[in-house]
Amino acid sequence: MSYTHLLVAVDLTEECDPVIKRAMAIAGPNGAKVSLVHIVEPMAMAFGGDVPMDLSQLQQQQFDQAKERMAHLFAKYPDIKQGASHLVYGQPRQEIHHFAKEKQCDLIVVGSHGRHGLALLLGSTANDVLHGAPCDVLAVSLQKKAE
Ligand code: AMP
């Protein structure tokens, strides 16, 4: 059984390259569709709720920057069609699951840092996405290889 629609969760850093490349290698031979999703987390959420200032302008800048970076990715990977991108505000796990269900994706591809020690306590997006996922999830290892 091969996959038909892959959803790649991109954090829009240089680390998305190996994640996108792996997804395209899986999709390519089967002619599967590849969609990208990036979630802009509301700033108030990052600051833990109550923030005594107006963050709307900063939030808009953050969104515009994400839009620009997404456009760069499409220029870099022309095999991914423009229409197949999704840029939303919210919480990554929730939005990735929502989009995967809505678009009937059968594989979610995320990067994974394989955290250990204290960093584990902070959790990881890959771990978060895995729980309750509506389809298969592939965690692409982003660990640096020892020289
Ligand atoms: P992290 O656990 O935050 O270091 O992220 C690991 C992976 O989760 C990244 O390589 C992306 O695949 C995905 N990811 C993290 N943040 C986001 C985001 N805001 N939107 C979409 N995917 C994300």
From TrEMBL:
Assigned GO CC terms: cytoplasm
Cell compartment(s), UniProt: Cytoplasm
SUPFAM superfamilies linked to this entry: Adenine nucleotide alpha hydrolases-like
Residue ranges of domain UspA in the record: 3-140
Keyword Iron in record: no
Keyword Metal-binding tagged: no
Protein origin, superkingdom: Bacteria
Keyword annotations from UniProtKB, A to Z: Cytoplasm
Pfam family, one: Usp
PANTHER family assigned to the protein according to its UniProt record, in alphabetical order: STRESS RESPONSE PROTEIN NHAX, UNIVERSAL STRESS PROTEIN A-RELATED
Protein family (similarity comment): Belongs to the universal stress protein A family.
Subunit organization: Homodimer.
Entry protein name: Universal stress protein
Organism the protein comes from: Pseudomonas cremoricolorata
